[in-house]
Amino acid sequence: MTVFWEKGYEGASLDDLTRGMGINRPSLYAAFGNKESLFRKVLDRYLDRFGARMQTALGRPTARESVEALLMGVIEVSEPGTPRGCLLVQGALCGGDSVEPIRLELASRRKALEARLRVRFEQAHEAGEWLPGGASDLARYFSTVLHGLAVQSAGGADRAELAPVVDLALRAWPRQGGKAGGGAGD
User: What is the pTM assigned to this prediction?
Assistant: First the structure.
């Protein structure tokens, strides 16, 4: 997982992968079939491991607190031994036509995360938390900010540089009356 996370799908060579797993090529092929199959299994493991954090964030009392927890979670220091950023973003940043199925897979998984945000916003609205109708647009906006923070983090930006971005993004949170600028007391 770490090799793909650091190098992306296309950048991770079979030598990198076998060295990272401490196995030889025949063992990799026997266990996983090919690089693409291995990558898909890595994505499943990544989402199992880090998806719990998203679920915890989405379970916050308000949708705004959920979004803040998600955004701040991206910029907090990663677990020891894990790269910065997001595998779902890093894995797809470059590549030729031969990796189109992987780009599509990653896009699908990012869309699924966006859909989870949309559902959270719809639930908040139904629970009486005031949100205007555009749950899909709001989910797309905060998903885009979330992934942008992951790219910046992977590029070396630290918490001090990215926390103001989170603050600015949260100013776009809709207040009662439909205008942006929602704060903690709105």
Answer: 0.78
